[in-house]
Amino acid sequence: QLDFQDDTFKTFRWREAWRLSLKEVMSLTHQEAELQWREELMFLAGRREWVMAAVLGGQQGALLQTLDSRAELGVAARCLSCIADVLVCMAGGKGGLRSGPAANKAWSPAYSLLEEGNLRGGVKALAEQRAHWLSRPDLLVRAARHYEGAGQVLLRQAVMSSQRFISIGQGEVPPLEEWQEVECPARLDLAGGWSDTPPIAFEHGGSVTNVAVKVDGKRPIGARARRIREPRLLLVSYAGGRDSEVATETVCDSLDDLRDYCQPHAPGALLKAVCVCSGLVSLSSQHPLGDQLMQRWGGGVELHSWSVLPTGSGLGTSSILAGALLAAVYSCTGRTYNTDSLIHGVLYLEQILTTGGGWQDQVGGLVGGVKVGRSRASLPLQVEQHLLLVYTGKTRLARNLLQDVVRSWYSRQPSMVQNAQQLVENSEECARACSLRRLGVCLDRSWLQKKLMAPGCEPASVRVMMDALRPLVLGQSLAGAGGGGFLYLLTREPRQREAVLQVLHNTTGLRDFSIHSVELDMDGIQVLLQS
After folding, report:
1. CB contact set of 54 (below 8 Å; sequence gap of 6+)
2. What is the pLDDT of residue 380?
3. What is d(CA 373, CA 71) in angstroms, rounded to the nearest whole number?
4. Are 314 and 480 in contact (CB under 8 A)?
5. Rg (CA), the chain
6. pLDDT, tens digit, for every residue of 321-353?
7. Contact 365, 323 (CB under 8 A)
8. What pLDDT, in 10s, does the model give residues 31-69?
9. What distance in Å separates the CA atoms of residue 435 and residue 416, rounded to the nearest whole number?
10. What DSSP assignment string belongs to 48-60?
């Protein structure tokens, strides 16, 4: 009886229930919210650890074979990075740090094939060598490092194709002993930084809005070069300004003295790379260094470089300095060039130097004024009275930062892909900003995007500093990739140096900071003739 009554009640409820057509259901739903949820669901599915699932399911062999088979140029570098992901996952959290050296000679034949352009042969050789590195966690991690190194070889080749845009002519060679001096401003990246970084730059597209600036009224970066009678290369790098007493001098009397140009920490590596990149000498020539210099230029070359900015400033020093050095060498040997050639020349140089990097630093420092990196458009804002630089006293220790970002991009982490698009959108919005308030919003948004791109780039002391300064500013961000260096402020009121200084002095735990004025540089790179 109870069951019968229960069934009767259910039947009654069913008969009394509303009946809606699909059209009526659609009219009662929030379609925009539904579509947004489906998009979020797609990203949630994308976040699933498919590599971990394959390894735990014993399918790592099949997964590696599938990735090995994808040897097309467009996806090869990403596949190599994914193979590194699988190898690290197979190590099970053991075997040491993923970032580390990748110079075991056993992998050299595979690297050589990749550098020669034999993609399929190189990938096959990598797979054959990998088979000997699967027995222990430490070997798996080391193999992963070598796969990432192979990916970097392909990345370098892609970026070095920019060499085709370098156009150098030959003009009148200046007299012996006549200095050709070059000065450059620093750069502040207002929005879009990281979107210029390969492979993001050529897989997604980038846009960076930045500005060339003088620091404390001076262009802080410079170089000079002259021909000398002795058939050798004399390379001098000043730790401070042009007339600093602290300098590193490197003398190259033979081609062997130049061969470590691709090791960034070797003495004079940047200046040596400039000598090779600029065509000053040829390392593949059968003629000795002295003979090449005398035959081509009638003598040797003395090359000096300097920057008054501290190491790790975040103001694009190394790339801008490379552009200044190239311009100085071209000028002292009578060769003609344009700014586009310098920009692409620096891209090429940083690849053979193996430091990598994007294009926004040299665009920011070699081209004057405020501009969008994707084009020559400029902003009509006069903002220098509202800009201040604060040196945080913390040097950026971003040794593996670029590698971590590239790794995340190749893994296509949804947050990374979404942030890359937002970087570009913020740069475009910054370029259209018609008020200081809107520009400040773009700066703040840019800093949030940098932190998403590279977690850990905000030291605790910098966070304290930014929180303390918040009432005085419309927007603020660490320059470059973050991690320390220079903090730039867009203040609510003009000429706020003393107010900023007072706030920082009254904030507990802050020390070793300094405040610097900023002035827009509308000229960019300048060549100064000196006797």
Report:
1. 60, 62, 63, 86
2. 32
3. 32
4. yes
5. 28
6. 999 999 999 999 999 999 889 988 998 898 888
7. yes
8. 888 888 887 776 666 555 666 766 766 777 777 777 777
9. 30
10. S-HHHHHHHTT-H
**List of residues 6+ apart from 459 with CB closer than 8 A:** 392, 394, 483, 484
> What is d(CA 238, CA 307) in angstroms, rounded to the nearest whole number?
7
Distance CA 251, CA 155 (A): 32
For 366-395, the pLDDT digits (tens) are 988 888 776 432 323 334 556 677 888 766
Q: How far is Cα 206 from Cα 501, in angstroms, rounded to an integer?
A: 36
Q: Which residues of the chain have pLDDT under 50?
A: 1-2, 375-383, 397
Q: Which residue has the tokens 């929030």?
A: 30
Residue 522 CA neighbour count, 13 Å, CB half: 7
Q: 58 near 122, Cβ under 8 Å?
A: no
Contact between 329 and 301 under an 8 Å Cβ cutoff? The reply is yes
CB 169 within 8 A of CB 329: no
Which two structure tokens, joined as six digits, stand for 410?
Answer: 């190749």
Closest CA to 221 of 302, 312, 318: 318
Q: What is the dihedral of CA 102, 106, 108, 111, to 10 degrees?
A: -70
Distance separating alpha carbons of residues 353 and 274, to the nearest angstrom: 9
Q: Which residue has the tokens 């949820």?
A: 37
- Cβ atoms of residues 346 and 267 within 8 Å: no
d(CA 73, CA 479): 34
Domains and CATH numbers, the chain: 2-44 (no CATH), 50-162 (no CATH), 169-191+208-372+524-529 (3.30.230.10), 384-520 (3.30.70.890)
- Cα(344)–Cα(327) distance, integer angstroms: 12
**At a CB cut-off of 8 Å and minimum separation 6, what does 360 contact?**
187, 189, 192, 193, 196, 206, 208, 210, 316, 373
> Terminus-to-terminus CA distance in the chain, angstroms?
114
Tell me the per-residue pLDDT of 186-230, one tens digit each, with 9 for 90 and over.
Answer: 999 888 888 888 888 877 788 888 899 999 999 999 999 999 999
d(CA 89, CA 30): 41
220's torsion region: left (phi>0), alpha (psi -120 to 50) or beta? alpha
Contact 526, 177 (CB under 8 A): no
